[in-house]
Design a protein that fits this description.
There is one protein chain. The protein is mainly alpha-helical. It has a domain of 91 residues. Helix content is 75%, strand content 0%. The chain has 15 helices and no strands. The longest helix has 21 residues.
């Protein structure tokens, strides 16, 4: 699904393109001047939400520009670690690559940014840690857990030392570490960490804070891994209701949380309930993020699996031909 590019992003793209086209760079000082102007022009862009699919066309353009500009900045010796608004833009671009299922290029870009910032502003600087977090998240999404785990561990250590155990950034780092342990199938350690994180998040941030909800979702996955599917289902339903309140009924967060309910129901053998949810979710995912979005594809796969488990093979065969027109649940 293609969404229109934000007008401010289009103007910034055109301004920087024209800046380099008009320049007749003959010495390093002139290149440095042009790079600073271009960097600061992008830094002035509004902070679009990288988790919102409606911004992804804008971020696709921004990110391509930033990748090119970073090469010029380094050639000219102009820091990409300043100003703070430019650092924030780079972090948002990295978040977009993760959210839009472009984790492989995200990991490559995050590694470049993190290494550069670690050298210029220090490995313990808050922005450098944010870049490390984006690197670890992309590595995690790519399935490179052996590289992701020590980065997550280091982030948690640094934030705990810098801010304390109950700071929002530290709690988010604990959530990310918990998610990594789940992917590594270390469910006992994940359960212990996620239980503690849920409790600390609830006390510090409140029940409906995004980090608290994420920690609760991690706890549900931990329980599933330990064979406690019924308890996991209760938590997944709670997470879904909280995301509906906080993010909206048709937000990607709420849709993904409902998908976790369907997955758990299927695992419990309630194939019809799982089918009903996935049939309802499929057009919602496609409307929100497009038919090629991973959440859409996975919902289609789950729906086919539900139908085959119910012995409805003809309907299952139709699933990959488009959104099936299935009868609503009774």
């Amino acid at each position: 699904m293609t969404r229109p590019v934000d007008p401010e992003v289009e103007r910034a793209h055109a301004d920087v393109l024209n800046l380099f086209r008009r320049s007749t760079i003959v010495d390093p000082a002139e290149l440095a001047t042009v790079c600073r102007v271009a960097r600061d022009r992008f830094a002035a862009l509004p902070a679009l939400d990288p988790d919102d699919p409606s911004t992804w066309s804008s971020y696709e353009l921004i990110t391509a520009d930033l990748q090119t500009l970073l090469g010029y900045l380094r050639e000219a010796g102009v820091p990409d670690s300043e100003p703070e608004r430019f650092r924030s833009l780079l972090i948002r671009a990295l978040r977009y690559l993760y959210a839009a299922d472009r984790a492989e290029p995200g990991a490559l870009l995050a590694e470049i940014v993190h290494e550069g910032w670690a050298t210029r502003i220090g490995s313990s600087h808050a922005s450098t840690i944010d870049a490390a977090e984006r690197l670890a998240a992309c590595l995690h999404a790519c399935g490179d857990l052996e590289r992701a785990r020590p980065v997550f561990e280091r982030i948690l250590e640094l934030r705990s030392q810098k801010f304390g155990d109950n700071h929002p950034d530290t709690l988010l780092a604990a959530c990310n570490m918990g998610a990594c342990l789940i992917r590594l199938q270390d469910f006992t350690a994940a359960f212990q960490l996620n239980t503690d994180t849920v409790q600390r998040c609830g006390r510090r941030l409140g029940k409906d804070d995004g980090t608290t909800i994420l920690a609760t979702q991690n706890l549900a996955f931990s329980l599933s891994g330990l064979g406690e599917a019924e308890r996991a289902l209760t938590l997944h339903r709670d997470v879904h209701q909280r995301y509906r309140r906080v993010s909206g009924e048709n937000s990607l967060a709420a849709l993904s949380a409902e998908a976790n309910i369907a997955t758990t129901l299927h695992g419990l053998g309630d194939y019809e309930a799982a089918r009903a949810i996935n049939a309802r979710l499929l057009p919602k995912f496609e409307s929100a993020a497009g038919k090629d979005f991973p959440g859409t594809k996975k919902t289609r796969e789950r729906l086919e699996m539900n139908l085959r488990a119910l012995g409805r093979d003809e309907e299952a065969d139709e699933v990959h031909g488009g959104i099936p027109k299935l009868a609503p649940p009774p």
